Amino acid sequence: MSALVDFTLNGVAIQAHEGETIFDAALRHQIDIPHLCHKPGPTGLRPDGNCRACVVEVKGERTLAPSCCRSVAAGMDVQSTSERAVKSQKMVLEMLLSDMPDAGYKWNEHDESLQHGELSDWAQRLDVTVRPALQSLRREETKADLSHPAIAVNLDACIQCNRCIRACREEQVNDVIGMRLRGAHSAIAFDLNDKMGDSTCVACGECVQACPTGALMPKTQIGSQIVDKSVDSVCPFCGVGCLLTYQVKGNKIMSVEGRDGPANHGRLCVKGRFGFDYAHSTERLTKPLIRIAGAPKAIPSETHATDWRNTFREASWEEALALTTSTLVNLRDTHGKKSLAGFGSAKGSNEEAYLFQKLVRTGFGSNNVDHCTRLCHASSVAALLEGVGSGAVSNPVSDVEHAELIVVIGSNPTSNHPVAATWMKNAAKHGTKIVLADPRITDISKHAWRTLQFKADTDVAMVNALIYTVIEEGLLDADFIANRASNFEALRQSVKAFSPESMAEVCGIPAPTLREVARAFAKAKSAMILWGMGVSQHIHGTDNVRALIALCSITGQIGKPGSGLHPLRGQNNVQGASDAGLIPMMFPNYQRVTNTEAHTWFEDFWHTKLDDQPGYTVVEIMHKILADDSDPHKVRGMYIMGENPAMSDPDLNHARHALSSLEHLVVQDIFMTETAWLADVVLPATAWPEKTGTVSNTDRMVQMGRQAIDAPGDAMPDLWIIQQIAARMGLNWNYSGEHNGVAVVYEEMRQAMQAAIGGITWERLERESSVTYPCIKGDDAGQTIVFVDRFPTADGRVQLQATQFIPADESPDEEFPFVLITGRQLEHWHTGSMTRRSDVLDAIESVATVSMNLADMKALGIQSGDSITVKSRRGRIQIQTRLDNGTPPGTVFIPFAYAEAAANLLTNAALDPFGKIPEFKYCAVAIEAAKG
Amino acid sequence: MHATSICVTNTTTAVACFTVELAKLQANPPAALKGKLPHIELRRGAGAYICGEESAMIESIEGKRGEPRMRPPYIAQVGLFGRPTLEHNFETLYWVRDIVQKGADWFNGFGRNGRKGLRSFSVSGRVKNPGVKLAPAGITLQELVDEFCGGMLDVHNLYAYLPGGASGGIFPASLANVPLDFDTLQLHGGFIGSASVIVLSQHDKARDAALNMMRFFAHESCGQCTPCRVGTAKAAKLMEAPVWDNSTLEDLNQVMADASICGLGQAAPNPVRCVQKYFAHEISESPAGVGDDR
Q: A140: which DSSP letter?
């Protein structure tokens, strides 16, 4: 605790913490000094002291002092309400108000005089009105800039407080907004005074959230700020897990604000802030649908076709549920328990994931349950469970603040984990060295100390060369290895073949650079590795992660602040869904189904016999659907909740053929997804803001999502639907209470996961919104950093693994000379089912593109924007080219969110043997100019 | 850590001149400074008035917008690139050699009216011989004009003068016998500042000079803080009126003087207040008055 300083404020003796500003000390004593350019609090900004509304009189000083910037000194005699101080405070407000337009953009409909947000509020509180003499001198009007799909720029309401600039440059570190000109002409500008819509703005909206007067506003909330309710929840998009507040009026989300969550501290990205309108899409499913007998199972050629009336007919919930359940039961009873399978969703809640896997294990009768974790970090989890005994991260992303060096490998965080990337950029600004290792040079490289653009597929060669250097140059943490690692000798032997000098050619990084990075990593006081799907989605994905674990371990860079392993989880609840047991080889909390003790415990817990063999994984299930009739494990019926394998699986022609070959497919979703088009029964479900439940983010935080709006039509909560099917299968469940018994489901799940979330009760989550686990007892704060003393492995030590270089399953050749890398982009989420239906997001990125570098384009005689055909041995798509010199030679990159040019028609379904994850990040393709 | 000296100048001629002289100095330093010469770097300023303010100059050298910083911390604590920094103008540096070589007593031997030292006055306006005048500190305006500038132009009588550039205020002829030096003019609502003296006659109006100054401030305001950004622009508009709205102007004066970040805004009211105080007849209901003989 800092020392206390005595001073006098408005004649009253009070205390400030050492270094505390007058403003903050006053606020702690319930004195709110007027302020505009200052945005205090945990989601606030660095004080800048430019508006001068917060000036106070300090005895003995010639001029007034800005209370937001002035630290309290012992004995200071401060007046915030003296005549002299108030005179200036009021004059500042009056001067600013005198330049405001008559009609504002952020107003209070209960009081027409309050047109300009915080400026009007303070003017009212200080009883300030503008005298005619100043009113008549109003500055010249500026034109509105409405070029951006989400944000309206009305600089006639700008007070030059530069909150937006600090938000853009210092918080999100996007460096788009600046100030141009000077004096009364000074104005904020985007890039080189471009229209906002033409600028490099990534629409994180941090500036909008920061603007006090409405000069920058979400287009959806210009005008009155009065809403029916504000609902605290959590973002439905990526795994960062930003807390937010929905502003709701008339059952419609008007806007979204960032809230002070441990992962985001008020920050959001374009998806979280402007992508909420998918829930209000007219394409929402509102009635249960049953396939018309004889209607062919096919996906319509046009994107997001909405006219399903020739294929499906509307049905009552009773009819749809009865049909689907009886058909599934019939298949199970005729062909055996392995004939059914279920895919849950990483986009649903923990409670939905838990109940879904329980339904499959206890109702369908097998462990054939999986979800898209298989497609993202299954290999990471396999390597982590084997190596460190836990599949989750060792440290939260925000811990990069304490790292001297961070390695970002196989990850494009500014696009895929935008808010997490802001912490990395902030750290870099404060001296943390970023090493970006990726075949693609992405935006984070602007902040990198070294960028290693290694050849795709050579992760193991490169990382082993780093390990080799650490060992050869004696940079090991010998104590750590002696006390906390097993199997070091085998690792030492195996990396002997991986000298940087011999690997330079293989991975494309010069040996001196590899050695320099290895030294910096080993010698750093703290170093962290963060990785994404560039690492995991290979047939050697598990080996890639094993090598990263080894690098961290032999340098002792784990189990302490700013050090460790962080697989950046993709979906908002991929961590939680995996934890909850939505995976075929494990019960909740990673208890193997083959573990007799765990098996017995769950049989007892659920009062039923359970399958003791692992079920099939996502891609394996696709194969099993197409298995021979004689195969007793042939999958014939499936229940898919909130997943879209007809877009997300590799080799889509094969996957779609499989899905359409099922005897019965029931799909539960909010839209007519590509998968739903292949269903026999479609059940309309609820979007995230329409239900209550918890999700777990990449930082191991369980976070509360609350219902903000009602679902459209007859759409029903997923939790209700699962329970309805369970009931019709004869399962005697009883989850009562509001929101379909979500609290009771959570509590049951907590019983099954005592070792992880025992201390996190539903009541605690309702109170705190976010709690980090492991958290065993009710009063635990939760462990943000794990492995401090021991690893949760059998011997308590990290299990080092030797790895060998294994090339990709399919290499480029004369016929298919290019490498295809797939992935995501900032605006679009997963298969695009939500984001492509968001007006703002689809307006910003509306066309499927393939990224290539200039040299390759020139060699092929094509230009950016040309339509070309990309084909592999498995499929072909027509797609528009996009110039991106960060894409390496001989390589193309395609985001997989676009149904009209589905990248996964091209990808290879070859699997990593341990994680069973497909090789999305590498296959061979050919390019030809499109016809016509 | 080695100290670095950075020189900032605004004109091409000066840059060329300094470059040549610095090269000579580096090539052949005085014996006493052999091996001790600090690294000297010459930077060209981009001409903004505000970048003469010490912290704005630092911001500019750091490659940022030329905006003054708030104090504390003072630049001697946290200055260029976060390091303790000393900043001097060239007049100060110019005298260092002479004072070191000839001693403080020699320098203090100059002065008048009880003040000590020498000052370079840049005199312009209605005098016979305008220009930079090296004169004793503490000299009065009257003495300066008479002894160094050959007196007033013919048919011009001293009406008013600006003792210290744009911010130093505007004094009437009745204050022509006040010693010009640091701390001698505050009492009267001005200061010596840069010692850029402008002499006005009965053919001039103080209000015109004040308006010119305020337009200059509005033009040169960095725009960072509200009082200066809005205050200078609004004041310049109000000062165009034949009869001034003194109450509104005084409100602006007060917030600019009290609440601006730097000296530009804090001193911007000086010419306004001087006109209100010494030349009220120019801005009142009956504008005809002394000095208005056009």
A: P
Q: What does the DSSP assignment read for B150-165?
A: -SBPTT--EEEEESST
Spatial CA neighbour of B167 closest among B240, B204, B233, B216:
B216
B259 to A92: CB separation less than 8 angstroms, yes or no: yes
Q: Give the position of tokens 């979703």.
A: A669
Give, as one character, the DSSP assignment of residue A221.
Answer: G
Q: Is-contact A271 A238, C-beta < 8 A?
A: yes
Kindly determine whether residue B254 and residue A69, on different chains, have CB atoms separated by under 8 Å: no
Interface membership of A84 toward B (CB under 8 Å): yes
Percentage, residues of chain B above pLDDT 70: 96
| Nearest alpha-carbon partner for A424 in A446, A442, A404, A401 | A401
Closest CB to A50 among B72, B224, B266: B224
What's the CA gap between A488 and A54, in Å, rounded? 61
| 3-class DSSP assignment, residue A817 | coil
Beta bridge partners of A153: A145, A216
The 10 Å Cβ neighbour count of residue A883 is 14
CA A540 to chain centre: 25
pLDDT at A107 exceeding the cut of 60: yes
The DSSP output letter for A831 is T
**What letter represents residue A870's amino acid?**
V
Residues A159, B226: C-beta atoms closer than 8 Å: yes
Which residues of chain B have a CB within 8 Å of the CB of A185? 223
Environment class of A913 (CB within 10 Å of its CB; exposed 0-12, middle 13-18, buried 19+)? middle
Q: How many CA atoms lie within 13 A of B97 on its CB side?
A: 4
CA triple A750-A756-A758, angle to 5 deg: 45
Q: Which token pair is A108?
A: 């209070």
Question: Which residues sit opposite A618 in a β-bridge?
Answer: none
- pLDDT category of residue B292 using cuts at 50, 70 and 90: very low
Pull the structure tokens for residue A900: 């009209």
Distances (CA, A) of A175 to A170, A546, A727, A897, A918: 8, 37, 55, 28, 37
**Which one-letter DSSP state was computed for residue A362?**
I
Contact B259 A88 (CB under 8 A): yes
pLDDT of residue B31: 87
Could you tell me whether strands A701-705 and A770-772 are parallel, antiparallel, or unpaired per DSSP bridges?
antiparallel
* pLDDT score recorded for residue B18: 86
Tell me the C-alpha to C-alpha distance, in Å, between residue A649 and each of A545, A643, A823, A902. Answer: 22, 10, 13, 10
Mark A369-384 as b/e (b = at least 16 C-beta within 10 Å).
bbbbbbbbbbbbbbbb
d(CA B291, CA A568): 78
- Diameter over CA atoms, chain A: 95
Query: What interface predicted TM-score (ipTM) does this complex get?
Result: 0.94
Question: Which pair of tokens denotes residue B53?
Answer: 């303010």
pLDDT above 60 for B2: no
Token pair of A840, please?
A: 């703002």
If you compute the radius of gyration of chain A from its CA atoms, what whole number of angstroms results? Answer: 29
Residues of A in contact with B248 (CB under 8 A): 131, 133-134
What is the distance between the alpha carbons of residues A663 and A659, in angstroms, rounded to a whole number? 9
**HEC readout, A152-207:** EECHHHCCCCCHHHHHHHHHCCCCCEEEECCHHHCEEEECCCECHHHCCCCCCCHH
CB atoms within 10 A of CB A125: 11
pLDDT tens per residue across span B3-37: 677 777 777 888 888 889 889 988 898 888 888 88
Residue A127: exposure state from Cβ atoms within 10 A (0-12, 13-18, ≥19): exposed
Residue A134 contacts B, CB cutoff 8 Å:
yes
Look at the block and give the residue holding tokens 């603040």: A401
**Cα separation of B2 and A42, whole Å?**
40
C-alpha A801/C-alpha A793 separation (Å) is 14
Q: Which residue of B lies nearest to A62 if distances are taken between CA atoms?
A: B258
For the stretch B275-290, pLDDT in tens is: 999 999 999 976 554 4
